[in-house]
Amino acid sequence: RVSSWPMVVSLTPTFTGEGLVSAMIHPEKGEGAQWHNTVVSVYRLRWEGENITVALAGKPFGSLGRMAASLERERTLGPPIIGVSRGGVFGGPITDLKGRFLIEAMERLGLSYSAAGGQELRHWQDLEAYRRERPDGIRFLSANLVYSSAPAVTLLPSHALIETGGLRVALIGLTPPAASRHLAEAGLSFAAITDP
């Protein structure tokens, strides 16, 4: 089920020159509806013949400990949870853990699938070593990270089909085209990221 609400997003420069992103969900509810340090992704999609813009807003959990506690609570409440990430499992803003330490922590939390993003390309050798050592671990997906000489052939599985709670779920991984700047440093000069 997808819900939608009016949302106001603002970017405010801080005194250190960094930006604070805030989103106000349900603006009519006033300050209590405002989230500081918000993550907002904007997507432009074609849906049933029309161009639409979708903004996804989320509030960071703050730490792996808080994420673990929230996941544990959700697991006791009901339907199965499929751990999915849009990428960045080799490093990000939620923890000081990086590389292999972070990916192993995310696996213990129940992450099962991840798209391959810029962090994964920057840590390609670590990703490949992890996949060799843990074939039953987190599965990395990308439908558009391809061999430049054979664009129909992907470097990673393009998708996964999962059955859970009586439903069949399809996951498709996409690598952001901007991540192509990491291909050379990752030793992937033979690869390309196609337009999704």
Summarize this, please?
With 196 residues, this protein is of the alpha+beta class.
Number of helices: 4
Beta content comes to 35-45%
Please state the average pLDDT score.
76
Low-confidence stretches: 32-36
Q: Please summarize the sheet with the most strands.
A: 3 strands, antiparallel
Return the structural class: alpha+beta
Would you report the number of β strands? 13
How far do the termini sit from each other? 24 Å
Main-sheet strand order equals 1-2-3
The H/E string reads EEEEEHEHEHHEEEEEE
* Estimated helix fraction: 10-25%
| CA-based gyration radius | 18 Å
Shape: globular
Produce the secondary structure layout:
Blueprint: E1 7-13, E2 19-25, E3 34-36, E4 39-47, E5 50-58, H1 64-77, E6 83-85, H2 99-109, E7 111-115, H3 118-122, H4 124-133, E8 139-141, E9 145-147, E10 150-154, E11 159-164, E12 167-172, E13 191-193
Parallel strand pairs: 6-7, 7-8
Antiparallel strand pairs: 1-2, 2-3, 4-5, 9-10, 9-13, 11-12
Description:
- The structure is a single chain.
- The chain contains four helices and 13 strands.
- The chain has helices at residues 64-77, 99-109, 118-122, 124-133; strands at residues 7-13, 19-25, 34-36, 39-47, 50-58, 83-85, 111-115, 139-141, 145-147, 150-154, 159-164, 167-172, 191-193.
- The strands form five sheets. A three-stranded antiparallel β-sheet has the order 1-2-3, with no helix packed on it. Strands 6-7-8 form a three-stranded parallel β-sheet. A three-stranded antiparallel β-sheet has the order 10-9-13, with no helix packed on it.
- The protein starts with 6 loop residues before the first strand and ends with a strand.
